Amino acid sequence: MKLKLLYSCLLVAGTAGFTFAQETVDTAMVSKIRNEGLNHSKVMETAFYLTDASGPRLSGSPELKHAQEWAVNQLKSWGLVNSAREPWGHFGKGWEVQKNYAAVTLPYYHAIIAIPKAWTPGTNGPVTGDVVLVKADTITDLDKYKGTLKGKIVIFDAKPGVERTYKADGVRYTDAELDEMTKPQEARQRGAFDRNSPAFRAAMKARTFRTVVNAFLQQEGVGLVLSQARGSDGTVFTTNGASYADTAKAVSPELETSGEDYQRILRLVKAGIPVKMEADIKTQFFTEDEQGYDVVAEIPGTDKKLKDQLVIIGGHLDSWHGATGGTDNAAGSAVMMEVMRILKAVNFKPRRTIRIALWSSEEQGLFGSRNYVLNHFGDPKTMELKPEQAKVSAYYNLDNGSGKIRGIYMQGDSTTAPIFKAWLAPFKDLGATTITNRNTGSTDHVSFDAVGIPGFQFIQDALDYGARTHHSNQDTYDKLSEDDLKQAATIVASFVYNTSQRDEMIPRKELPKPQPARN
Ligand SMILES: [Zn+2]
């Protein structure tokens, strides 16, 4: 006998300001999903093949293609249909590192920790040279270096980026912090850059001048450029690379260097102690296929009326190239694949069709998900919608590291509160209790939200995502937390089950206004 437990919800005026409604949860299926997800998990195996076995999954790289093809076959092997790499449009040049060696040879030998900046060329064989400090705040300042920098290794003056901190890297939300998040708050776009702020304008000005300096150094024929990376203790956070566009201007080879190594070289040069370096950087550009691809696959719906409707889950599979993109975002990709495996393993025959999508080029601007939405559902710039837009009940995303789920962001729409509250209730013991009206941004659910499809990212414990792994050379399989990923896959599988089986689709906010492109 199927156990049905009615989660009677009370009108709790004034606590979290939500109105609850009747929502049904099938506890028998929830137990099956828990058992499969917590006791028979394959999430770490999947994560291994996406990280150690595939390598750094930079957009357009052979490594990302390898991971995509592996995922397509794995999803197929679990019985999913329509499993494929789906092109979303033109991306640009692919790129990978094929050799990365650099060391100080004078006043003594020291191999440095550094990563070639994405989409920069190699040194065209081994180079050796003196390290030269280039100090320039204006174009005129550059004049004094004209004709003096050929084959040199260039370093810039930079404040120590290495702040000593004795706080633990890894953190979990406290109950007080989670409680704070439940307080009603004006929905606000987290992470939105205030384009009018002096800080934003200064950053734009610095970026523009850096382009001028890059062109100058390239014309001078410098051997190598060193730039100081954010991070400490040998951790190198890679930033946005050079351009991957076909029209990209030529730049010099550049190494994003660990703070400790950069500051040591800089202190020596500033003290007038000659520094020599040797390096051999080899990188490869790929232009045969400049299309971008997303991985998609499905568990087909079975209900006559509802099978054409969709529940979509996803996360981005691309990563930066400093390591193997463990927590960003093999974690989210492996969890979403595991959700599909769990649902197949418990022999679930969904009413609505369930689709998984592993996006590419999220790191360059949500390109994989934005273009997927454009190709399938509608254009946020004009709000011209396609018929499919009305058939997606919800999109669930995971892309905040390896931490376990503590709840869900409602993206400014509290009408989903009673539903999600009921769906989280069976996982109180696993620490998932919180629903917040707040928005969270900067990842792929935003692409769905932009065309009026309910798109959600779960609240996750940060662990050492911000302090250590997010876009760094430390972002490896080792930084994944197995128990956290098992918990996440189990909870998402249950949400997907409930969304697929619910008579009604997930309630929708008012359709957003057209968002013309910003110049
Ligand atoms: Zn990410």
Topology:
Layout: E1 4-7, E2 23-26, H1 27-39, H2 43-50, H3 62-77, E3 81-90, E4 94-106, E5 110-111, E6 114-116, E7 127-134, H4 139-143, E8 153-156, H5 175-182, H6 198-220, E9 224-228, E10 254-257, H7 259-270, E11 276-286, E12 291-299, E13 310-316, H8 326-345, E14 353-359, H9 367-376, E15 378-379, E16 384-385, E17 392-397, E18 405-409, H10 417-424, E19 434-436, H11 445-449, E20 455-460, H12 465-469, H13 482-501
Parallel strand pairs: 7-8, 8-9, 9-10, 13-14, 13-17, 17-20, 18-19
Antiparallel strand pairs: 1-2, 3-12, 4-5, 4-11, 6-10, 7-11, 12-14, 15-16, 18-20
Helix pairs in contact: 1-13, 2-8, 8-13
Structural summary, described in words:
- The protein has 13 helices and 20 strands.
- The protein is of the alpha/beta class.
- It has two domains: 264 residues, Aminopeptidase, CATH 3.40.630.10; 193 residues, 3-Layer(bba) Sandwich (Glucose Oxidase, domain 1).
- Helix 1 runs antiparallel to helix 13.
- The longest helix has 23 residues.
- The chain is elongated.
- It starts with a strand and ends in an 18-residue tail after the last helix.
- The N terminus is likely disordered.
